[in-house]
Design brief:
about 110 residues, mainly beta, 4-stranded mixed β-sheet, elongated
């Protein structure tokens, strides 16, 4: 497996935590997690999912060549949420290990009375 790990693609995110700050309930936040394939073979993302159904990731479905970059778009819908948020977005790819996690954090303010 060592040789596999050496030749494997490596997903390197520009930032693996995005803080959207304070938003009002019902607001939607979209963020682009930019990444580069720092490995030596094409990066293939097979899945991406979030810790909550309120958060939807979209990822490239074509291989990312070594040295090339890509984007995972994540949209968080704050409807029905309040308080501090930490949504984990798991990216499943042909990397070693297979799962990489990024975070979307921030605070949903209390509804205005």
């Amino acid at each position: 497996t060592a040789a596999t790990a050496l030749n494997a693609p490596v997903i390197k995110f520009e930032g693996d935590v995005f803080d959207f700050g304070k938003i009002n309930p019902g607001d939607k936040v979209t963020h682009q997690y930019k990444f580069v394939n720092k490995g030596q073979s094409p990066l293939i993302i097979t899945d991406s999912y979030a810790s909550c159904g309120c958060t939807k990731p979209e990822w490239p479905h074509t291989p990312i060549k070594p040295g090339a970059s890509g984007v995972i778009n994540v949209t968080f819908d704050s409807a029905g949420k309040s308080g501090l948020q930490d949504k984990q977005i798991t990216v499943v790819a042909n990397t070693v290990p297979a799962n990489t996690v990024v975070h979307l954090i921030g605070e949903v303010l209390e509804p205005k009375k």
